[in-house]
Automatic annotation (TrEMBL):
It is a multi-pass membrane protein. It comes from Pseudonocardia broussonetiae. InterPro entries: Virul_fac_BrkB (IPR017039). It comes from the Bacteria. GO terms for cellular component: plasma membrane. Residues 326-337 have a biased composition (Low complexity). This is YihY/virulence factor BrkB family protein. The lineage of its organism: Bacteria, Bacillati, Actinomycetota, Actinomycetes, Pseudonocardiales. It is found in: Cell membrane. Pfam families: Virul_fac_BrkB. Keywords: Cell membrane, Membrane, Transmembrane, Transmembrane helix.
């Protein structure tokens, strides 16, 4: 098999790719998988947020004396934009002060356990959707699938710790955290490469997720179309979601408070929808242009084949290869032949 298309006219092939992508996504219930991922995302973030806040009581002094105070003021200020003043003054502000001032081991431990369980469930739903799109859902053992999802979730947390502050600051505020001597050059570089760099990193992260999720993986270039589609679909849907939130919040606090959880769930749903749709595109491209087989099997595949089909010892009655006959061997053959022709006495 080769990477060449199976038809001389590329237009019908690409139409079949689009049809297979949409048909496969619909047949394998993309909306149900996306909603499941959104639910687990929504369930994992609040306990993770509480665990992080509870840990500030222990590690807040490591980052400066005013760290806890700044975080508390930011939480209360944001809450006043969403909730009524009575809710903020009577519930949110005292709770934030109690959690942030005194370290809460129970909140930290229980919060992280719930966050790991729910977050790994969100990753597991996405991994199941990706493997089902490629017809590999039953290849990996279910127990290992769950452990694998937990490891991917921990890796995603590490990546989020590094990237989310950069995303939150944006190209306007990011140069201000750098030393004064670097701000001039950094401002021009960040302004020129921030958005292209963010798009490139997003595509690479999505491609890595597609590659890690598949038991029988594909080359990196084969997973790029799905990653590009997932990024484009998510950016377009997130832009529409921002317009929706802006319209609702402009009407007053009541609709803004109601729209916040809806927007949060829609954000998780659209994220899962874009990732699963990209996986179906990768599978459709693979069906239209099958990848070349690897030039030689991997070491693990060779060992698995040796365990499954062990080498059989040679049979004594089978003739061996033609070899040159030496003098002692020829003499032994003549002696055996003469003994067999002698008549018994």
């Amino acid at each position: 098999m080769s990477d060449a298309p199976t038809s001389s006219d590329p237009a019908p092939t690409w139409r079949r790719v689009v049809g297979r992508t949409l048909g496969g996504a619909w047949d394998k219930d993309i909306f149900s998988h996306s909603a499941q991922a959104a639910f687990w995302q929504a369930l994992s973030l609040p306990p993770l947020f509480l665990a992080l806040l509870g840990s500030l009581g222990y590690v807040g002094d490591w980052f400066g004396n005013d760290t806890v105070r700044v975080v508390e003021e930011s939480i209360v200020t944001f809450a006043r934009q969403v909730f009524t003043p009575e809710v903020v003054d009577e519930i949110i502000a005292p709770t934030a002060s109690s959690i942030l001032t005194n370290g809460r081991a129970d909140v930290v431990s229980v919060g992280f356990v719930i966050a790991l369980w729910a977050g790994s469930s969100a990753i597991a739903s996405l991994v199941d959707s990706i493997t089902e799109a490629h017809g590999q859902k039953l290849v990996r053992h279910p127990v290992w699938q769950r452990i694998f999802s937990l490891l991917v979730y921990l890796l995603a947390l590490v990546v989020a710790i590094v990237t989310l502050p950069v995303i939150a600051l944006g190209p306007d505020l990011l140069p201000q955290v750098l030393p004064a001597s670097w701000r001039g050059a950094a401002t021009s570089l960040i302004g020129a490469f921030y958005y292209p760099g963010a798009a490139l990193i997003t595509v690479l992260v999505l491609t890595a997720m597609y590659r890690l999720a598949l038991p029988h993986t594909l080359p990196w270039r084969r997973l790029l179309p799905g990653a590009l589609l997932a990024m484009v679909v998510f950016i377009a849907s997130a832009t529409g979601l921002r317009v929706y939130i802006a319209v609702l919040t402009s009407t007053g606090y009541t609709y803004g408070a109601l729209a916040t959880p809806i927007a949060f769930l829609l954000f998780g749903f659209l994220l899962g929808l874009s990732i699963v749709l990209g996986a179906h595109l990768n599978n459709a491209v693979e069906e239209a242009w099958p990848a070349r087989p690897e030039p030689r099997p991997r070491r693990s595949d060779r060992l698995r084949a040796m365990r499954t089909h062990p080498a059989m010892p040679p049979v004594a009655d089978e003739p061996g290869p033609d070899l040159p006959v030496t003098a002692p061997a020829a003499h032994a053959a003549r002696t055996t032949a003469s003994d067999s022709t002698k008549e018994p006495r």
